[in-house]
């Protein structure tokens, strides 16, 4: 995937900040252009709509998640649950600002067809953790572990990273009934 130009990256950064501050639906392209001190036509040169801009911010993270999941699935049954949870924590932690934005903008993401993709990933991660035909108890434990892991990266933003990682992964393992 080609790297975005400096101007495109600046637009994405400013948009991400404004989306976090006031929400996607309340942020106009004019707001973004004004924050950057550029004209609206200059912004339109790079992004034809707010939806395209949102997708450009979210898509690289979606692509990274897909690559990670595909690589884990390619290992077959050789996935070690704690290592998988540690890697999931690292992903969630690295993208926690965007995760918070995504959680607050579920309607926008649904309109862009991205919610189903995220639900599918949770299902695929569950299979990696507890197998292809989990019992209801195993499936709920996996969902609790994964959701809690993600929530911890958002909820405890001020906690030292390594301490939060250990505590979060330990809690996720406990939810799964692992030692």
> Helix and strand succession?
HHHHHHHHHH
Rg measurement, Å: 18 Å
Helix content: over 70%
How would a textbook summarize the main sheet?
none
Assembly state of the chains shown: single chain
DSSP, total strands? 0
Which spans have pLDDT < 50 for at least 5 consecutive residues?
Answer: none
- What fold name goes in the CATH topology slot of the largest domain? Tetracycline Repressor, domain 2
**Based on helices, strands and strand pairing, what is the structural class?**
mainly alpha
Estimate the mean pLDDT confidence: 90
Strand % is: under 5%
Q: Alpha-carbon distance between the termini?
A: 40 Å
Return the CATH class of the largest domain: Mainly Alpha
In total, the number of domains comes to 2
Overall 3D form: elongated
- Secondary structure tally, helices: 10
What is the CATH architecture annotation of the largest domain?
Orthogonal Bundle
Short summary:
With 179 residues, the protein is mainly α. It has ten helices and no strands.
Using brief descriptors, characterize the structure shown.
Arc Repressor Mutant, subunit A, single chain, Tetracycline Repressor, domain 2, 2 domains, 179 residues, mainly alpha, elongated
